[in-house]
């Protein structure tokens, strides 16, 4: 009975080595694709959760008539500030300042203590604007390269960049006389650019929709 020659064994070993290398490369490619897909899905979930939180806050935006001549929302640069209403069980209606900001590529949210006092609310707004409050920051998204916002005011025909609130200095008359109401701010557009994505994720929120 004839056995294998040395050349035949070398050829067989070479073929097996080639098959093993091709199989390893294919498996490595699958693993890398899976890791990248999982990272992208986690990133997408983070953005969706951040947008969901912004949507909830915008839906409970404080009625500007309660703070005539003062800000209830400010969307400028990479910082969003707003005052939302808080209604909890066995608690009277209260209001709190909410701040979203991007610092070192991280989108964070912080909420100041709810209050019923207008003076306290104004102080909270000023301290939040100056970033002098000591409220803990909850991180919502990392690797944020930019955050752009625009507002939509009823009666206008286009988006406004760096828009402010509903009744604050929209007209000279409204600034001098709080009883004069300016057009109501109705929408907020937020565009978030995250590292590794070709285009930013954009969403429009209705203000005071609840």
UniProtKB/TrEMBL annotation:
InterPro entries cross-referenced by the UniProt entry: N_methyl_site, Pilin-like, T2SS_protein_J
Superkingdom to which the source organism belongs: Bacteria
Annotated membrane topology: Single-pass membrane protein
Lyase listed as a keyword: no
PROSITE patterns reported in the protein's UniProt record: PROKAR_NTER_METHYL (PS00409)
Segments passing through the bilayer: 6-24
Main subcellular location: membrane
Pfam families in UniProt: N_methyl
Keyword vocabulary terms for this entry: Cell inner membrane, Cell membrane, Membrane, Methylation, Transmembrane, Transmembrane helix
PANTHER family named among the record's database cross-references: TYPE II SECRETION SYSTEM PROTEIN J, TYPE II SECRETION SYSTEM PROTEIN J-RELATED
Protein name per UniProt: Prepilin-type N-terminal cleavage/methylation domain-containing protein
Organism phylogeny: Bacteria, Pseudomonadati, Pseudomonadota, Betaproteobacteria, Burkholderiales
């Amino acid at each position: 009975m004839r056995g294998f020659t040395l050349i035949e064994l070398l050829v067989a070993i070479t073929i097996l080595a080639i098959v093993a290398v091709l199989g390893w490369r294919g498996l490595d490619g699958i693993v890398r694709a899976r890791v990248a897909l999982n990272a992208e899905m986690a990133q997408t979930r983070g953005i969706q959760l951040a947008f969901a939180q912004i949507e909830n806050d915008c839906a409970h935006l404080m009625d500007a008539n309660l703070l005539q001549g003062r800000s209830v929302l400010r969307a400028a640069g990479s910082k969003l500030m707003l005052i939302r209403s808080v209604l909890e069980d066995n608690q009277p209606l209260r209001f709190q300042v909410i701040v979203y900001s991007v610092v070192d590529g991280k989108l964070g949210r912080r909420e100041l203590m709810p209050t019923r006092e207008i003076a306290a609310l104004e102080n909270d707004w000023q301290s939040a604007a100056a970033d002098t409050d000591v409220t803990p920051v909850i991180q919502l998204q990392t690797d944020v390269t930019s955050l752009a916002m625009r507002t939509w005011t009823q009666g206008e025909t286009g988006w406004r960049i760096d828009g402010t609130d509903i009744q604050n200095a929209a007209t000279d008359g409204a600034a001098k006389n709080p009883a004069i109401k300016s057009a109501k701010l109705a929408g907020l557009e937020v565009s978030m650019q995250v590292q590794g994505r070709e285009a930013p994720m954009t969403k429009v929120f209705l203000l005071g929709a609840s």
